Amino acid sequence: MPVVETNALDKQYDLGEHHVNALLAVDFVVEEGEFVAIMGPSGSGKSTLLHLIGGLDQPTNGEVILNGQRLSLMKDKQITLLRRRNIGFVFQFFNLLPTLSAGENITLPLLIDGKNLQEYQDRLNTILLLIGLTDRQHHKPEQLSGGEQQRVALARALIMEPAIVLADEPTGNLDSKTGMAIMDLLKRSCEELGQTIVIVTHDPRAASTANRVVFLRDGKIAEEIRFEKTADKAQRLRLIIDEMEKLET
Questions:
Q1: How far, in Å, are 16, 24, 160, 234 from residue 86 at the CA level?
Q2: Would you place residue 15 in the very low, low, confident or very high pLDDT band (cuts 50, 70, 90)?
Q3: How confident is the model over 102-118, as pLDDT tens digits?
Q4: What total number of domains does the chain contain?
Q5: Is residue 219, in this structure, part of any structural domain at all?
C-alpha cells in the first residue's frame, strides 16, 4: 500500500476576478521507503501539492490518501491527529522554540502527543547520532549554526517515526555546502531508518539526492525521472538540469 496517493487532485484559487488553477488532475503515488523530489518553475504547484499531501490545505476536487486513510472522509480534528502522528514536517525556516534546548525541541512532538519520553530514548539517541548533534543536544537554538538548527528540525520531524517526512525547500535558508549536508542526512534517514521522504526544491543539486524527481508545470505532472542506484550525482544533476531547461522554455 502506498504511503501517499492522490487521485485527480485539483486545487483552484479565486483571487478577485482571477481564477487560478494551482493543480489540475494530479495523480501522484509515493511508496514506502522512497525519497522523492518535486521540482518545477515558480508557480507550478509544488508547494500546493505538498500542503495538500500533508493535510495543511484541502483540494477543490480529487482525493488524498495518506497511510491508507482518505482525508476527505475525516474531520479537522482527525486530520490534525493524523498529521501529528504520521507526518514529519521540515520547512525552510527552522521554527525552533528559542527557550528550549536542541533535545527538547526534538522531543516536543512526543510531549504534545502525550508520549513517554523514556520509551523514545533509544530513538532519540539514534537520531542524534545520525545528525551528528549528540554533544550539542543541550544547546539552545541561538548557540547553534543555521545548519545545526536545520538538523534539529529534521530530527524533530523524525522522532515520532512518521509514515512520511515532507520538506518544503529544506536547504533554501542555507549556504550550498550546508544545504547539501542536510540533503545527505535526508538520504541517510531514508536508507538507514527506512524513512519515506518527499521534498519540494528549486535546487537541482538538492534534487539529485533523491531516488525519483517529479516535475510540475502549470499545475500538472509534466515528467518524472527514476534514478538507478548506480547513477552518480553528476549523471543525476545533468538529467535534472536538462529537464528543468525544457520546462522553463
A1: 36, 26, 8, 34
A2: confident
A3: 999 999 999 999 999 99
A4: 1
A5: yes
